[in-house]
Amino acid sequence: MTLPETEVTGAGPAAGPTGARPADPAGLGTPQPAWPHRHLLDTDALTWPQIELVLDTARHMGEIVAGARPRSTTLRGIGVTNLFYEASTRTRVSFEVAAKHLSADVVNVAVSGSSIEKGESLLDTMRTLEALGARVLVMRHAVSGAPYLVSREFRGAVVNAGDGWHAHPTQALLDLYTLLGHVPGGSLRGRKVVILGDVLHSRVARSNLWTLTAAGADVWLCGPATLLRGFEAWAAAGVGGARRFTVTTDMAAALADADAVMALRIQKERMASGLLPSLGEYVARFGLTRERLAATSPSCIVMHPGPMNEGVEIAADVATGPSSVVTEQVANGVAVRMAVLALVASAAGLSTGLPAPRLTGGAQ
Ligand code: CP
Does the pLDDT value for residue 186 go beyond 50? Predict the structure, then answer.
């Protein structure tokens, strides 16, 4: 059956614990690999065909964002709740915009002013939001693993929008989507991608390691030794199969002929005393400047997940210069998050075009 342009999911039975999986969970019009994930908690759970399905779906969604296709009704009547315990601009807003493009009923929970401030537990908050109609819960939390805890009890779908130092899967997927739009031939195989800066505290770096190595990129992690702790041992052990990455404090070696450099924010709020002698010394040794960028490939792109500390990890003229794709990353986040929302909703058995489905297995 060919779906109307605005129907992105709903082709056939939705995936459930025992149900048959749709051949085309994202409604791309041709049979696709199965999408089994009711929750997206990190990229380590994704196979390469599943990553490709997200990217293909995001390309389709990008046409909706660009106005070339009408707004989708994929999540009509489905409650998408954004629960952010940590500050966010890009991720929270792009999930909201993405959910609206899919016709979802979007609710944003402001932790400040909610009963969370009165000491309500994370699980009580989740149950309350579920009772109020949340079927897809997008959550950010300062504690690594918090979305995993919630996903064990929440009966809809959970999307991790960043947990502690651990994972930020939709950021890694939008980074990959952006990168693939710039490399000749559309493949990262053998391409050198440098992740530079505060790797230690970076959930973005950790999630990117899985997607970039799955894509066959030659990944280099570079920064001061104190901000690479643990990664050398991980690199030496290998992360599985043919995946390999290099860990170095040698900025010149890392940047030589790089195809992409992803600068990471110096996370002052997570910086225990003693990890850096001073910000000034960091800037002098590891700041991404135009002079240093000259060592990279002529077509090298500059990325940053944001928010940026201009003049610290990245010079202002690099952040906004011709090699920068930072605003493109932000824009791509909408299509990629639409894809993720559509896919997890499909796997959770959330029907399209219906009132918010009742959840089984407990009181509502
Ligand atoms: N990249 C990112 O997570 O940005 P926000 O903190 O603004 O969401």
Answer: yes
* H helix intervals, 28-116: 48-65, 90-101
Q: Are 61 and 187 in contact (CB under 8 A)?
A: no
Residues of the chain within CATH 3.40.50.1370 domain(s) are 43-167+332-347, 183-324
Task: Assign 240 a pLDDT band (cuts: 50, 70, 90).
Answer: low
Does the beta carbon of 90 sit less than 6 angstroms from any atom of ligand 1? yes
Q: Is 321 in the pocket of ligand 1 (CB under 6 A)?
A: no
Instruction: Report the pLDDT value the prediction gives residue 112, as an integer from 0 to 100.
Output: 81
Question: In one letter, which amino acid is 107?
Answer: V
Residue 211 has pLDDT above 50, yes or no: yes
User: pLDDT tens digit string along 333-354?
Assistant: 999 999 999 999 999 998 553 3
State how far the Cα of 107 lies from the Cα of 116, in Å rounded to an integer: 16
- 346 contact partners, CB below 8 Å, separation of at least 6: 9, 10, 14, 15, 22, 25, 26, 35
pTM score, whole prediction: 0.89
Q: Please check whether residue 8 is in contact with residue 342, taking contact to mean a CB–CB distance below 8 angstroms.
A: yes
Q: Which atom of ligand 1 is nearest to the CA of 89?
A: 7
The Cβ-side half-sphere exposure at 96, using a 13 Å CA radius, reads: 12
**Residue 246 Cβ contacting ligand 1 at under 6 Å:** no
Half-sphere exposure of 60 (CA within 13 A, CB side): 26
230 lines ligand 1 (CB under 6 A): no
Ligand 1 contacts CB of residue 307 (under 6 A): yes
CATH architecture observed for domain 43-167+332-347:
3-Layer(aba) Sandwich (3.40)
d(CA 277, ligand 1 centre) in Å: 26
